[in-house]
Amino acid sequence: MAIGPSAVERWLDLSTEELRAQVSRLVSARLPGDHAVWQAIRRHPALVPRIRGVLSGLAATAAGSKDEAMQKVWISKARAALDQTAAAPVKAAPKPVVEEVPAEEPEAVIELREPEPQQRQPHKAVPTMLFQEPS
Fold first, then answer.
1. pLDDT tens for residues 13-52?
2. pLDDT tens across 94-106, in order?
């Protein structure tokens, strides 16, 4: 099965193993989050949690392998793409008028000083020990 926006429609009917194979291919493709495939996936609310579960399974499978670090990066990017929301145009809200309130008396300032370095005392000389042979 191909990876494409039209193929995502059929992912709802796939078994867990088939979906895992498709998601694994999708993760390996490293598509950007605004790609049409990710947009098609995000449009299906029932598919998003299933893919999150598959991504967790892929992360667990990758643990301990020689490619673990690379797989974790790819999986985290896939999760970020899955969580991405479409940027809707935001209307600029009028800024509320804030009246200035006269400031009260400022609080007392506490100065924090670093402790003064302690004077290093000279090293005490270690007495020389002499060992005698037993007689």
1. 888 888 888 888 888 888 888 888 888 888 888 888 888 8
2. 667 766 666 666 6
Pair 86, 43: CB distance under 8 Å:
no
Token readout for 41 is: 């996936």
Residue type, 95: K
Q: What is the 3-state secondary structure (H, E, C) of the chain?
A: CCCCHHHHHHHHHCCHHHHHHHHHHHHHHCCCCCCHHHHHHHCCCCHHHHHHHHHHHHHHHHCCCCCHHHHHHHHHHHHHHHHCCCCCCCCCCCCCCCCCCCCCCCCCCCCCCCCCCCCCCCCCCCCCCCCCCCC
pLDDT in tens, 55-64: 888 888 888 8
